[in-house]
Structures are given as C-alpha cells and as structure tokens.
Design brief:
alpha+beta; 3 domains; seven-stranded mixed sheet; six-stranded mixed β-barrel; 49% helix; globular
Length: 798
C-alpha cells in the first residue's frame, strides 16, 4: 500500500512542478544550513569528551571578591601544586601546562613545534594514547620529550623516533632531549593541542619562581580520585588557600566592604573548559555560541517548514475535487492523511539528498568564512547519523503531517458543494507568514546592530597610536639579536622611535595576549593593579599623553626603581598628582617611586573597562614596538619583517601593526556578524519564496474577482494595491512584534562590552521598511501579472 501511495505522490508532484520546486529548493537550502550549524554546535559541545578520566579532571580558577568587583584568574603559583598534593586528600594527579612554540633541531634542520611543558602525571591524567614507547616511563626524566606521530614524521621522516636525540632551543640555548615516546595525533575536538611534550621544570622561569607564592603564570589541573566530589575537594583546597595566602586575604579584607570570602579557588570541570571564558588556557568561547547555532538552525528550518505547510494546505484546496471524490468513494481519513504525508515525505527526501550535496560542496567555504573546522568524518559517529535521521523524520512529520491531517479532516459535504476556498483571512496561513517575517526582521536588525558595534570598535579612540606602530614578537631572540635589531631600526629613515614591552597590545600574529595583575598594601588599604614591563620611550612610541611628570629616560640612573602609572591608578592611590610618591609592591621587593602619569588608554579589549596600570622597567621584554612615518606602511612592514628574520633566524611570528592586533580581539564578534547576516539573507529568501508561491495560489483563486473589477473600471495600480495590502499588513504585524524582541537580544549582547554603540530607533525602521519593500516586490510580481490579464479569459474559463 505504501508503494502505491508513493507512486501516486510522484505523479502528483510531477503535475505540480512549481509547487514542488519551491518546496524542494527552500527545504534543501534550509536543511543544508541547519546541518552545518548543528554540526558546528555538536563539535563545540563535544570538545575534550574523549578523556577517560574527564569527569574527575578540573582546572583551578582563582576568585577575588572585594565587594565592588569580582576578578577571576586561571594562573596559579608553582608552590600551590606541591601543597595541594601533600595536604588535600583525594588528589590523584596534578599538572601545570605551559604552552610555547619551540624551535626543535634534528640534524641540520630546525622546525617549530607547538610544545606543552607539563608535569610527569600529564599522560596518566589525559587520554592522549602512546603508540610507541611506554606511557608510564615517558616524561619521568627532565631531559625527555614526547612527540606526536605528525611531529615525529616531520623530524625523522618515516623512521621510528623513540630513543633518538633532538635539540630544543630554550632560553636562547640548544639543549639535547631524548624522545621517550610517540603519541597519537591530537583529535580535532581537543581543546588542548601539542606536537611535543616535555617536563614543566624546563620552563624558562621555573627556577626563579618555583617557591614564589605571588608569581602566578600558568594554569593548573588536578585529577581527583574516583568518588571524590568537587564540593569536598574545593572545601579542603580552600583550607590550604587560607593557610598559604593568609596575608593576601587579610589585605583584601581591609577594603572589601564586609565581604569575608575575598579570595578562594574553585574547580572548573573538564567538560566546561572549551566554553568558559575563565579558562584562558582554552579559547574562552562564549558558551552561548553553540546555542546560537542551534537557534539559527531551528529558525531557518522553521521558516522552510512554514512554507511547506502553507503551500501544502493551499494546494489541497485546489485539489478539493480529488479529495471529495475519494471521500465519497469511501476513502478513510487515515488513508488520505497517509497519501498526503507520502507526498510530503517524498519532497523532503529529495530535499535531504540535495542538501547533503550542497553541504559537501559548501563545507570548505563554510569553514573558511566562519572559522570552523567541520569535517565529513563527523558522520562516522553513530550519534551524529542517528540525530540527523531523527531530526529529518521530525521535520517531515511536522512539515508534512499537519497539512495532511488538515486535509484529511475536511468535511465531505463542504468539499462536494465547492465551498472550500483560501479566503482572505486564513488564520493559520497568516499566522505562519507573520512568524516567517518576524524572524527575518529580527535577524536583519541584529545584523545591523552587530555591524554598528564592529564599526564602533574599529573607530573608537584607544588612547594610543595604533596605525603607525609595528609590533615585533621576540620569539626565541637572544639579547644580542634584540640589540642588533634596535640598532638597525635606528638607521632606517622612516623609523621615529623604538620601544618594547612584556605584553603585546591586542593580539599579534603569534596568537598571544595576556595580563599581569598584582596587589599590594598602600596606606592600610589593598590596591590591585595591572602591571606592565616596558622599555625606554614607551610613551613616546605609542603617543601616550603624559599628564604629569615624565617617561622613563636613559638620562636618569634611578629609573630602574621608578614606575609610570595611569590616571586610574593615581585615583586608586588617592592622589591627584602622584609624581614623587613611593610604595612597595611586595615585601621582598624594594620600594618604587612614581615619575610620571599617563592618560588612561585601552591596553585590553573594549569588552573590559580600563584598569589601573603600573609600568615598570628591568623585566624581560617579549615585543619590540616600532613607530614609523611613511606613505607606504605595507612596504615598511615588509622591510622590517625581512630585517628581523635576517637577524633572528629562529623568528617564527611575523610583525604586525597594532591596529591589526586590536581587530583580532573581536574575531568572535566578526563571526557573529557573518552568521547573522547569512541567516538573515537565508530567512528573507526562503520567506519570499513561500510568499511568492502563496501569492500565485491566491491570485489564481481570485482571478474571477479581478476580472470583474477590471470590467467595472478598476486600474492596474488599484488592483495591485488591493491584492498586495493583505500581505503587507501581515509583514507590518511581524515588524511590530520583531522590533522589541530584537532590541532585547541586542541590548543583552551589548552589555558584554564596557564600551559600545547606542541602539538607534532608525535601525528597526530600516529593517522593517526593508522587509515591507521585499515583501511588496515579491507579491507585486504576481499581482501585476494578474492585474494585466485579459478579464475575458478570467471570466470565461472555469
């Protein structure tokens, strides 16, 4: 019987080519978009799910609550790890993770490998299978390394690398290491990536900070014994915290406004690493991002399903003769329902096949534009296939089942008397059209506001010269390389000044960004500030405005114990002119004196408000800043890049202008903009396809009315307006409903920025006008055709 229904469905679809084409194209486009978006969400949610001990692994996060502001930090001090292992029950394994791009040499060639410096428990805690060598003995010695299969292939070609000696460039020196094991390549859904592992004790600053409780530089991970709860672990851990951070806690409590729990640690579960901004070791991706993918996929599928429902119901009225005849001959409601659902199922199957082809074709472009890494191999997962099939049947059931049910319940007497018609006020049809355009208007409005915020970010004054300053990452540079580079830069005519810094501004091509927060007591109150190590001429190179005092200068030998602060730091210290005041940043450091104050500037992203800042000297620098004055900045950048790579043969990351660095901080917002824009375009196109098809059917139903009006003298423009106004009313209703919804969503989104644009009323006006114009043009295409038709044909043909 089912075979018979499918044959009849196929014949009906061949007779209704326009109806079938609109539904297949609309549904296949929507299914393709929904598949891509859903796979993106699935990939984000399944990060790090392959670790066998995942449910027992946590990253430690520090919380500092002084009443007015809550700060979180993911970097921990080195002696904390030792204390936790000794004094907290239930800790099975513990490891720091310090990531670097390290030059590795074998023979005459050297390569850059992504290295993680870890403790000896790392391979026992995390599931990165060892395919050659012994997991238990790997990383037990300080001179051992573990390579991935890919890295081993790069270094040794096709030979087995276990037992071979390679050299790593650490602190500017080549040092020998023995390859103790080869690990499988890292899965693409791992938030943790490496090509080489070595012991954490090889980290360049390890020996100087291993006993320093105030130096927190790297994330710390713990594995609990099975059965140990997160709550009990945190309770015991914070007993240790209160013991070893007693002085810091007492200082914080002095100006905490009555808050008692001013500093504590919590455990961030492994499953939350990838989608938690507190885990700076990972991407810090907004946890709403995968939900946004699912919401957009649902909206796009919903719009296509609405088209399907509307067109199916509309076509069923045109087939009232067939329905009445079959009912009069004894067809049951269930048989009619199955027949019409079979037609819907057949259409959806065609759409699914076409959508899979589209997805395969568009996947490389999708990954490139939106910065995703979806591969077709994801369909090897039985859950992905099961979810896709289940989702398809659900869509088919909803999109095809409701119209089939509606048709099957038609009254036989009304059908035979010819009283069925589309009417001007079909409640279901009109409601669904309103929903379609409401979604389209929301997406258009959101796209516009996101675009405005991106423009605001690009044009917002940052307080420093970003367009003329080049940042050079000093990866693997020796002191002599840095000195030579500075001397060569001084000889270049377009170079106006040269300085340096421990931290970059924005995010450079090395992918690095960070901050350094310190706290100390000043006049019986706790002061918290960002700290930045800089070189001479820092303010001059960046065009920072000096409000009082001066910048660091080689003419003053005492500047080694001097600091320059910003306005907010002066305000926190409680002084108007801070020049000359002294303070001590820790008990084991000599006091420093303030020599200058600069105007506040955005040294972090516009997501955050400007923090107090203290600039110091005599600390390691990781970047050179070069201010250039040239009519050809691209040529100057290329020239400086060539010069630097000629001096430092181990240089990996290219220099970049600071304005480029600043824009890299907002890649997630740029991704949101592209996604919303694509979603809005798809929503509008699919909605218009459905509106056009509905208009065709409505005009066909009202052809006699149009003919009579023309005979009675109605103008073409009058008829077009008459036929279009019913649809335009629906679009206007959609605009009125969509406007407050879009405002709410964007208001909440903008709250994530300390500095953001204002939501203007005209954005929603333009979005609504655009939707109305698009709908009018869509309907008018058919309205004009109907209005120009010969009334004789309309009145004489049945």
């Amino acid at each position: 019987m089912l075979k018979s229904y499918l044959k009849i469905a196929w014949r009906n679809l061949r007779k209704q080519k326009v109806f079938a084409a609109v539904n297949i194209v609309g549904m296949s486009t929507a299914l393709c978009a929904a598949l891509l978006l859903s796979l993106t969400a699935y990939r984000e949610w399944t990060y790090d799910n392959f670790h066998e001990n995942g449910k027992d692994i946590y990253q430690l996060i520090g919380i500092e609550d002084t009443g007015g502001q809550v700060k979180t930090g993911s970097s921990m001090s080195k002696p904390l790890a030792v204390a936790l292992q000794k004094e907290v029950p239930g800790v099975k394994g513990i490891t720091f993770i310090a990531g670097y791009n390290v030059p590795v040499r074998y023979g005459a060639n050297h390569y850059y490998l992504g290295a993680q410096m870890v403790d000896k428990d790392f391979l026992k805690m995390f599931t990165f299978p060892v395919i050659k060598g012994d997991k238990n003995s790997a990383l037990q010695q300080l001179n051992q390394v573990v390579l991935t299969k890919r890295a081993s292939g790069i270094l040794f070609k096709d030979t087995d690398g276990v037992g071979k000696t390679v050299e790593l460039n650490l602190n500017g020196k080549w040092q020998p290491f023995i390859v103790s094991a080869i690990a499988a390549d890292i899965p693409d859904n791992s938030g943790m990536y490496f090509e080489l592992l070595t012991r954490f004790e090889n980290e360049p600053e390890y020996n100087t900070t291993k006993n320093d409780w105030s130096a927190s530089n790297f994330p710390l991970f713990v594995q609990l014994e099975p059965g140990v709860s997160k709550t009990s672990f945190e309770k015991n851990m914070n007993v240790v915290v209160n013991k070893y951070y007693k002085g810091k806690i007492e200082d914080l409590q002095k100006n905490a406004g009555g808050v008692k729990n001013v500093f504590y640690l919590k455990g961030l579960p492994l499953k939350d690493f990838h989608l938690d901004a507190d885990s700076s070791f990972y991407s810090g991706l907004n946890k709403f991002y995968p939900w946004l993918m699912i919401i957009l996929a649902t909206l796009i599928i919903g719009i296509a399903a609405i088209n399907f429902i509307n067109l199916s119901i509309a076509r069923s009225f045109a087939r009232s003769g067939e329905i009445g005849l079959r009912k009069s001959l004894g067809a049951q409601n269930g048989q009619l329902l199955l027949q019409f659902w079979a037609e819907a199922f057949l259409l959806c199957c065609f759409a699914l096949v076409l959508s899979l082809g589209l997805m395969i074709l568009l996947l490389p472009y999708y990954n490139q534009v939106f910065g995703h890494h979806i591969a077709l191999s994801v369909f090897r997962n039985i859950w992905v296939v099961t979810g896709t099939v289940a989702g398809f049947f659900l869509i088919t059931l909803l999109a095809g089942g409701y119209p089939a049910w509606k048709v099957a319940r038609l009254n036989i007497l009304q059908v035979l008397k010819g009283k069925l018609g589309m009417g001007k006020s079909s409640g279901v049809r009109n409601g669904l059209i309103v929903v379609q355009f409401m979604v389209a208007v929301v997406l258009i409005s959101c796209t516009s506001i996101i675009w405005q915020q991106l423009n605001f970010i690009q044009s917002a004054p940052l307080g420093y010269n970003s367009s003329q300053v080049i940042s050079i990452p000093l990866d693997n540079a020796t002191p002599s390389d840095i000195t030579t580079m500075k001397n060569r830069l001084a000889e270049m005519g377009e170079v106006r000044s040269v300085s340096g810094s421990m931290l970059n501004l924005g995010m450079g091509k090395d992918g690095s960004s960070g901050n350094w927060t310190r706290g100390f007591m000043y006049k019986d109150r706790h002061v918290s500030t960002q700290c930045l190590a800089v070189d001479y001429d820092y303010a001059r190179t960046l065009d920072l405005k000096i409000l009082s005092g001066r910048d660091f200068s080689r003419e003053y030998g005492t500047d080694s114990s001097a600091v320059v602060i910003n306005e907010l730091m002066a305000k926190q210290l409680g002084v108007t002119d801070p020049v000359g005041i002294t303070f001590r940043m820790s008990d084991d450091e000599p006091p420093v004196h303030v020599i200058g104050m600069v105007k506040d500037y955005h040294f972090e992203s516009l997501h955050k408000k400007i923090d107090p800042l203290v600039m110091i000297m005599n600390a390691p620098l990781n970047y050179i800043f070069v201010k250039v004055e040239t009519h050809n900045p691209v040529a100057s950048l290329k020239k400086i890049t060539t010069l630097w790579k000629g001096i430092n043969e181990l240089a990996e990351s290219d220099p970049s202008f600071l304005d480029e660095n600043a824009q890299r901080l907002y890649r997630q917002e740029q991704r949101f903009s592209k996604i919303f824009m694509s979603g809005a375009v798809l929503a509008v196109i699919i909605s218009c396809m459905g509106l056009f098809a509905i208009a065709v059917l409505v005009m066909a139903h009202r052809k006699k009315e149009i003919g009579i009006r023309k005979v009675l003298g109605a103008s073409v423009s009058g008829i077009v307006l008459l036929l279009s106004k019913d649809f335009l009313r629906l679009v206007l209703v959609a605009v009125l409903i969509a406007t407050p919804a879009a405002w709410y969503f964007m208001h909440r989104w903008l709250e994530g920025f300390e500095y953001h644009t204002t939501i203007h009323w005209w954005v929603f006006g333009v979005a609504g006008l655009l939707a109305v114009c698009i709908a009018f043009l869509t309907v008018s295409l058919q309205s004009v055709k109907a209005a120009l038709a010969n009334p004789v044909n309309s009145l004489t043909r049945d």
